[in-house]
Amino acid sequence: MAELIALPVEQLRWRCCPQQFEFEDTTALELLHEPIGQERARTAIEFALGMEADGFNLFLVGPSGTGRSSAIRHLLTQMAATQPPPVDWCYVHDLEGGARPRSFSLPAGVGHRLQEALAAAVRRLAEEIPKIFTGKEYEESKAQITARFQKKHRKVFEQLEKKALRNGFVLQRSVSGLVLVPARQGQPLSQSTYDALSEEDQRSIDQKGATLQRQLNEALTAVRDIDLQARVALAEMEMQRASQVAQEQFAQLRQDFADHPWVTEHLQRCQADLTAHLDLLRPETAVEEVVDVLDGGEERFWDRYQINLLVNNAACAGAPVVFETNPTYFNLFGRIEYGMHQGNAVTSFMRLKAGALHRANGGYLVLDARDLLLNEFAYEALKRSIRNKQIRIEDMAEQSRILAMASLKPEPVALRCKIILIGDEPLYELLYAQDKDFRRYFKVKADFDDSMKNTWDRVADYARFIATQCHKHDLPPFDRTGVAAFIEQAVRLAQDQNRLTSRFLDLADLVQEAAWYARRQQQSHVAAEQVQLAVAAQRYRGNRLEEVLRGLMESEVLLLETQGHSVGRINGLAVYQYGEYAFGLPARISATVAAGRSSLINIERESQLSAASHDKGVFILSGFFAQRFARRQPVAFRASLCFEQSYGIVDGDSASLAELYALLSALAELPLRQDVAVTGSVNQYGQVQAIGGVNEKIEGFFALCQLRGLTGEQGVLIPAANVQHLMLDPEVVDACRNSRFHVWGIDNVEAGMPLLFALAATEVEQRVAACLEDFSALLRAQAPWLSADD
Fold first, then answer.
1. Whose CB among 89, 286, 315, 533 lies 3.0–4.6 Å from 311's, allowing a Cys bridge?
2. Residues 352 and 310 sit within 8 Å (Cβ to Cβ)
C-alpha cells in the first residue's frame, strides 16, 4: 500500500519575492496611464471604434470592477483627441408655422459666434425699428403720401360736384354721409318748393337724381380704393424703411457668414417676417413688453429672431466623449421645457434643451446597459435613433395626457455617434437572445476577463498601478515588501497561482486601506505588514457569520468530529457567501446502506434543499457503482446521503467525492478518518475533478482544527487539479511546514483510499463487492421472482 504524500509547502502558496524588484519604493516608478491586460477586449474596442459601418456599436461585457469603464475612458480619450470637433447644432424659430422649429448645423465655434452676432443685431433692430415711425423724415414721407391721395380724393368729388350742379343738384354732408339735394341757382330746394313743382318737373328731378346717385356711389367706391391705396402706399413706405434698417443691421452678418447658406437664408426669412409684423412694433405698442402672441408663448417678440445654440462645441479639442450616468429618456434625447403665462403652460423654441446624445453627436456616448433598460422609453428610443440616424426632441408626456396640449415638433438632428454600453454577461446574453434588434445595432462585444496571466510584465504593471493610486490619492508609497504582499493578494483573489485578478476596484481599495494603516502606525512607507493587516481587517469586517457557525461547531451544537474514525461518515467542505465575503466550513456527510432494489436517495433533494448541480453529482455516483461493480450482476442496495444539520440549499457537485467515500465506507463497513476533510468532484469512472473555493475550504477546516487543537495528523484531501489554485493563508502554510497540518492531492478515488481507510484500494473494493454480492443474494432469497432492478 503506497503512502499518500502531502503536498510540499512550495505548492501551497505562490510567493512574490520582494528582491526581484529593482526599486526601493513606488515613487521610483512611472505612473500607469492605460489599463492593464485585457488584450482581447482592447482589440475588440479598437475595432469597433475604428469601424465606420452602421451597427458596429460596442457592448462591454465583464464583471463589475474589472476596469471596463476606465479602459473605455482611456481608449476613447486617446482616439477622440485625434479627431476634429463635431459641428454645432442650432434651432431657430419656425417663422412660417411656429410649431416646428428648424435645425441646422455649423462648424464648431461658428454657432456661438452667430448667436452673439445675431443677438447684437436684434438688439439694435429693437432700438431702430420703432424709430422709423417717428422723426421728420418719416412725417414728411407720410405727409407726401397723404397729400398725393387727398388730391385724388378732391378730384373725384370736384368732378361729381360739377356734374351735380349741371344737373341741378348739390352735395351735402349729413349724419349718414354724402347726399344729393335738388337745387335752383346753386341753392338747395326746400321740401315745400319741391312739392309745389309739377309732376313732370318732379319726375325730371328724380330721374337726374337717380343717375347722380349711381355716380355718387361709384365716386365713394373710388374714394375707398384711394384710401386703401394710401394705406398700402404708407405700409410699403414703412416696410421699405424697416427692410432698409434690417438690411443694414444684417449686412455685416451676411458678410461674416457668407460661407454658410443656411444663415443667409435664415436672415432673409427674418427680414421678411419683421416687415410682416411691423404693426406690433409701433411705439404705441410698447415694444419692450410685446410678447409673441402669434405662438401663445411668453417669450418676447424679438426672441423669434434669435438662435437657440443647442450644442456648442467651441471648446472641444476633439470628438466629444460623454458618460451619461443617469440615462433617462429626457437626459438622453433632450427636452421641451415649459413655463407659465396667464395660467397656461407655454413654450418656445428657445426652451429646447439638449440631451447626452446631442452632446455626444460626432463622438462617443457611454451608457450603463442596466440603467438604460430600467428607464422607460430610453432603450427603444435609442434603437430608433440609431436606425433612423436622427435625434428627435419629443414631449413623451403627451402619451399619458388625456387632453392634447399645444406643443412643439422640432426638426430632428442628424445623428453620427458611436454608442458604447457597459454590462455583465447575463445581461448581454439576455439582450442577444430576446431582442432581435440588439445584434443589429451592437455587433461588437468586448469581453473583459476577471483575471489575467501572472507574468513578470503584469507584475511590473501592478507595481505601477500601486504607484498611480498612491499618486492619485496622495498616499505614502509602497516599499518592495508591500508591493510583493499586494501582488500575492491579487493572485489570491484570482484563485489561481498562474493568474492575477482584474478586479481593480477591490485592488484600489486595498491600496488605500493599507496606506491608512501605515499612516495610523506613523510609517513613511507601506510594507507587507500593513497590506496583510488590511487584508485581515477586510476579513474581520465580514466574518461574523463564520465565527458564529464555527463557534457552534466548537461547542458541539453542530456535530462534527475532527479526530477518530467513523463508518459511513466523513467531513465534507462547503463554501458560504455572505455578502462580498466567502468562507469555508466543514460539514458532516453521512451515508447509510441496506439491501434492496437499486436506489440512491439524496435526502437534500427529497426535502427540496438540493440544487440541480448537486443532484447531478449524486446521480453520477449511481453511474460509478454501475461502472465499477455491476459488470456481472446488478447492484442491489438502497442508500441515502445527507448533509447533517444543514438547513440551506446545497449547491454544486464538489461534495460528490466525499459522498462516494461515505458510501464505500458504509458498504465495506470500514471506518473513515474524521481528522481528514474531503472536497472534490468525481465522474462515473472515479476520476477526481477540480472544484471552486479550494482555499476557503481548506482554511475553514484548518480553523476548526486549530480551535480544537492541532494533532499533526489532520488535513484536507483535494483534487490534484486544484493544486495550481492554492493560495493558502500564511498561517496554514506555516502549520503545514511544521507538519501540524497537511494537504493532499489526488487524481482518482483509489488514490485517497489508503489515507482514509488505512487499506489498499483493491482491498476496499473487494469488501464493497462482497457486500453487494451479499445484498444481491439476500434480495434473491427473499423475492426470487424479482430482479435487483425491479
1. 89
2. yes
